[in-house]
Amino acid sequence: MVCIMRADSIVTFLCCAAASLACGLHSRTPIDTDPQFAPVPATAAGLELGPGGYAVQSYGGGAYMVTEGSYQAFFLITTKGVIVVDCPPTIGHRMLYAIGNMTSIPVTHLIYSHYHADHIGGVTIFGEDIRTIAHSETARHLLETPDPNRPVPKQIFDKNYTLHVGNQTLELAYLGEAHISGNIFIYAPIQKVLILIDVVFPGWLPFAALGEAKNVPAYYHAHDQILQYDFDHYIGGHVGRAGNRTDVLNQQEYILDLKQNCELAVNLSATDDPSIGAAALLGPVSAKNPGNSWAPFKVYLDTLAQYCANKTNEKWLGKLGGVDVFGFENAWLLIESLRIDYGVLGPFATV
């Protein structure tokens, strides 16, 4: 049996999944190891990398972003030392080259944006004598998951901290989980540069599972918090370029569309129409997998997520990079969040 899925019809998705299970097929499909995705729009393009495999962008006033095309870090030159924010291991020693090409002033301070290794796993290149600063939750995570490549910060704070070094200032604030507990807002008020890692991906849709967000409502709220700052440049930690206010607004519009379409899918699955109601899907799967209550629910979640992703892609393909790459994973997480965080239960509401 061949099923053709269309983005505008949840009927197709529900019936297709049910029919496949009835035919004895697994809901999991083979992984395509040679996929063809939609072209990336020009607005998603990153900075041109130099011969060293990295690029440096100046924001004036001693503020710089460094990228190797996938990750980003930041440094700020002061009269008393250089302040660094993060050092992804994929950038690694190139941070030293980037800083050394701009100044002979030594690095004296290092800020951890949060505890994830893909952003701070290269910090040991700066040695042990620098002053490391992070939120208390970041320190807790690092104590719980010891890693010699991510030393526990020497100085921690709980809510706000203003760092003054020489002629420069950075304002650090913890406004909630956003991406994960301890993930902080870092703001250079003179240069109007805002850093918040793993939330907004300028020119692209969010990486899988909304940037691996641990708290989806907080992730959504973080976009409003970002827009309360007066910034000209936004550093999100990923992709090959920094962003601006328009990039934040574009992503906010995308995730709101995604939420609306996911909620539509959940509500449609709760209708009494046997052709589109959850019973049309759950019944055949349950019959094929007696005693396995997870089987029908997996097919239910996957089906709704695919419907939501495809419907959202209709608007956003060609506007953001990677829309068809991680659209399903973002939708899947949101379907689950709608149920457990927002109380949109669809057919599983109180009987």
Automatic annotation (TrEMBL):
PANTHER family, per the entry: ACYL-COENZYME A THIOESTERASE MBLAC2, METALLO-BETA-LACTAMASE DOMAIN-CONTAINING
InterPro entries per the UniProt record, alphabetical: Metallo-B-lactamas, NDM-1-like, RibonucZ/Hydroxyglut_hydro
SMART domains xrefs: Lactamase_B
Protein's UniProt name: Metallo-beta-lactamase domain-containing protein
Keywords, sorted A to Z: Signal
Species the sequence originates in: Phialocephala subalpina
Domain called Metallo-beta-lactamase: residue spans: 70-238
Position of the signal peptide: 1-22
PROSITE patterns referenced in this protein's UniProt entry, alphabetically: PROKAR_LIPOPROTEIN
